[in-house]
């Protein structure tokens, strides 16, 4: 028998060292995240391993799993606690050691192992830990699997048995790096800033970029789990400003920034300007659809409307489907449709053959960006960006809305716009051209301006984004149209930021 996890225990007590602690909120929609020693202890991680092993058996999948850990002061100890639980459940564990998350995904294919459990807090601040899990490569768990895992762990409904074993794969990163770099070298000598924020990617990104033929300017690539400069997150302004400064100082062709576990890549052009991930996706879609006929792409509902309206993509016969926000949803949909690639506004990109194996890998994204530049001799990153049609887009805006109320509010907003469309009514002075309701509602009007309202997956908030290909005023008109509907719901509070 193994005790049922407690939701809270006090550190430096007998109970903390003798019982498992697992705070229920750590089970998210498609992965798990906790504050170590405040929301989960090592015995709780062991319980998680037992629960994951039981779930794998319940799913009818062979109990064989890849594990790895990111570069934080406590990640290795958490991984070994997880491994002890997995082995108790009867799993054969393949440990690849210190790794970026996509290295663990690669190992599923390379070692022919069906399951994965990567210990990482991704781009979260120090103090956080978590696990990204999957049992059907290249996919990771979604809400159904995470809900069932939570039930098993919190009820201690384990099914432990003999037969577990452990194998460490020595020097495994060399196999991952060889796989990424087994390609023709770039014809163009690109000068690239590789920024890693002292996170895990620093051990691998410079080698990979040099091996494909880049001149690499390393920026904060020394591993240091105190993250002395800034948190390794290419969406944070501190990291982007550091990349900008390095690009300008070294007259680099492009700056590439990798998050803490290496599954996302941020881009700064040769003028030092950040290019948001959805616009990078449009640039890559242009490049990829030029050499792949009838290319299909999947993008999340927060992404730019250029995927549909861009004349170059239209001319090249590219088709795009908008889908739910979230790396697990996007990965699954890209896989189901056999799309060439999926692009999420957060920077998770999913490349299928011939570019990748369907999972998100910041280094695969970096290589794709370098190859795009290689196929555009004489053009800079800024030239490629400036060649896109101009759009005016808002940042992500989040009005407060309680977790208990947010989904009901969004359902009502969806119904409101569906009724307007049925009645031929106008939004922001124009007819509705298209409604996408896979994840909240995205309303596109006749001139291509659009607005999105959805519920946040992990905070007591709504998410509002607007964009117009016409003018800043039309963008503001769409915001007023969306916000005026939200203001009819008293449950919706103040925004964190507004245009």
TrEMBL record:
Superkingdom of the organism of origin: Bacteria
GO term, biological process aspect, one: carbohydrate metabolic process
Keyword hit for Electron transport: no
Entry's Gene Ontology molecular function annotations: intramolecular phosphotransferase activity; metal ion binding
Alphabetical keyword list: Isomerase, Magnesium, Metal-binding, Phosphoprotein
Chain ranges of the Alpha-D-phosphohexomutase C-terminal domain: 419-483
Leader peptide range in chain numbering: none
Residues in Alpha-D-phosphohexomutase alpha/beta/alpha domain copies: 26-158, 175-272, 278-390
Keyword field contains Isomerase: yes
Database matches in SUPFAM superfamilies: Phosphoglucomutase, C-terminal domain, Phosphoglucomutase, first 3 domains
Named cofactor requirement(s): Mg(2+)
Pfam families for the chain: PGM_PMM_I, PGM_PMM_II, PGM_PMM_III, PGM_PMM_IV
Family: Belongs to the phosphohexose mutase family.
The protein's name in its UniProt record: Phosphomannomutase/phosphoglucomutase
Species for this entry: Bradyrhizobium quebecense
Lineage: Bacteria, Pseudomonadati, Pseudomonadota, Alphaproteobacteria, Hyphomicrobiales
């Amino acid at each position: 028998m193994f005790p049922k996890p407690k939701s809270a225990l006090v550190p430096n007590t007998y109970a903390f060292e003798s019982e498992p602690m697992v705070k229920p909120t750590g089970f998210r929609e498609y992965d798990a995240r906790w504050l170590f020693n405040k929301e989960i202890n090592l015995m709780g991680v062991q319980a998680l391993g037992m629960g994951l092993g039981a779930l794998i058996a319940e799913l009818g999948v062979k109990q064989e799993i890849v594990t790895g850990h990111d570069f934080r002061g406590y990640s290795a100890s958490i991984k070994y606690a997880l491994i002890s639980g997995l082995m108790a459940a009867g799993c054969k564990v393949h440990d690849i050691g210190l790794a970026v998350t996509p290295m663990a995904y690669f190992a599923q294919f390379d070692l022919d192992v069906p399951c994965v459990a990567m210990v990482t807090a991704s781009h979260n601040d120090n103090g956080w830990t978590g696990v990204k899990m999957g049992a059907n490569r290249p996919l990771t768990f979604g809400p159904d699997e995470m809900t069932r895992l939570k039930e098993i762990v919190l009820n201690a409904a384990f099914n432990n048995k003999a037969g577990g074993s452990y194998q460490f794969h020595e020097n495994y990163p060399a196999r991952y790096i060889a796989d990424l770099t087994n390609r023709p070298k770039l014809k163009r000598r690109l000068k690239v800033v590789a920024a890693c924020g002292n996170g895990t990617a620093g051990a691998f990104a410079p080698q990979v970029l040099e091996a494909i033929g880049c001149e690499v300017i390393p920026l904060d690539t020394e591993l240091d789990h105190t993250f002395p400069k800034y948190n390794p997150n290419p969406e944070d302004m501190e990291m982007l400003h550091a990349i900008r400064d390095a690009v300008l100082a070294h007259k680099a062709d492009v700056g590439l920034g990798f998050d803490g576990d290496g599954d996302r890549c941020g881009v700064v052009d040769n003028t030092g300007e950040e290019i948001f991930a959805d616009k990078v996706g449009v640039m890559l879609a242009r490049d990829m659809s030029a050499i792949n006929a009838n290319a299909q792409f999947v993008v999340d509902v927060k992404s730019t409307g250029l995927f549909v309206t861009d004349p170059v993509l239209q001319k090249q016969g590219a088709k795009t489907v908008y889908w739910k926000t979230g790396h697990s949803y996007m990965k699954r949909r890209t896989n189901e449709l056999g799309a060439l690639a999926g692009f999420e506004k957060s920077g998770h990109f999913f490349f299928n053959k011939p570019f990748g194996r369907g999972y998100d890998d910041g280094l695969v994204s970096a290589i794709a960006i370098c190859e795009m530049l290689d196929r555009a001799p004489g053009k800079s990153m800024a030239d490629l960006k400036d060649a896109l049609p101009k759009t005016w887009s808002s940042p992500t805006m989040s009005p407060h809305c309680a977790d208990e109320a947010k989904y009901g509010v969004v359902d009502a907003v969806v119904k409101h716009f569906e009724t307007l469309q049925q009645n031929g009514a106008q939004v922001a002075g124009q007819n509705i051209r298209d409604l996408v309701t896979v994840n909240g509602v995205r309303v596109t009007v006749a001139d291509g301006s659009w607005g999105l309202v959805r519920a946040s997956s992990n905070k007591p908030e709504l998410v509002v984004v607007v964009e117009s290909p016409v003018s800043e005023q039309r963008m503001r008109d769409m915001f007023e149209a969306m916000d005026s509907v939200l203001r009819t719901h008293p449950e919706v509070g103040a925004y964190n930021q507004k245009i």
